[in-house]
Amino acid sequence: MLRKVLVQIGTLITVSVVAGFWFQTFGVNIFIGIITGALLQFGAFYSFSTILNAYVALKNKKLENERLKEFSYQGLEVTCPCFKQTKQLVPVRLNTPNYYKCGECNKSVSVIIDATTATVTEPLTNTALPTINTELLKNLQNANT
Q1: How many CB atoms sit inside 10 A of residue 69's CB?
Q2: Per-residue b/e over 90-126, b at no fewer than 16 CB within 10 Å?
Q3: Of 107, 64, 55, whose CA–CA distance to 86 is shortest?
Q4: Sign of torsion over alpha carbons 13, 18, 21, 26
Q5: Whole-prediction pTM value?
Q6: What pLDDT score was predicted for residue 127?
Q7: Neighbouring C-beta atoms of residue 21, cutoff 10 Å
Q8: Can you tell me whether residue 79 is helix, strand or coil?
Q9: For residue 113, which of 101, 134, 96 has the smallest C-alpha distance?
Q10: Cα separations (Å) of 123 from 98, 117, 119?
């Protein structure tokens, strides 16, 4: 750690002195050149770190969105039973108990999954009006005779 700091300070001083001599060739005082070189280094480092942090933040957001997309296939949006009624997307597995920690109240909450059944309906295949009317007429005629 100390070695890394010393290398960084050495690099700062070396580049600043080189910048000072370079500025001196143009008739600028060497000390102003050294200070300008140091300030340029700090500015360049700040710009680089800002751009790098923005890139990393965007990359993390993209990964988070992809994770949430995959997570939504195996997750369930639930509401915390506390007074804040916070909604969260939590992972759900059918072979283990499902627990999560609420982001607002910080309590552990259990998720109970309930299965229900329903009958499947099939669409009517022959709903043409003339066919129904013809069948009704046939039935009426048979009933009258």
Answers
A1: 9
A2: beeeeeeebebebeeeeeebeeeeeeeeeeeeeeeee
A3: 107
A4: negative
A5: 0.45
A6: 61
A7: 12
A8: strand
A9: 96
A10: 38, 19, 13
For tokens 């709903």, the residue is 127
- The pLDDT assigned to 90 comes to 84
Distance CA 43, CA 19 (A): 14
Mean per-residue pLDDT pooled into runs of 10, the chain (145 residues): 89 91 89 90 94 96 85 79 87 83 87 85 67 66 70
Structure-block tokens of residue 55: 């890139």
| Cβ(42)–Cβ(9) below 8 Å | no
122 Cα distance to chain centroid: 40
Residue 124 has φ and ψ, to the nearest 5°, of -70, 135
Helix, strand, coil fractions of the chain, as percent rounded to 5? 55, 10, 30
Cα separation, 134 vs 117, in Å, equals 38
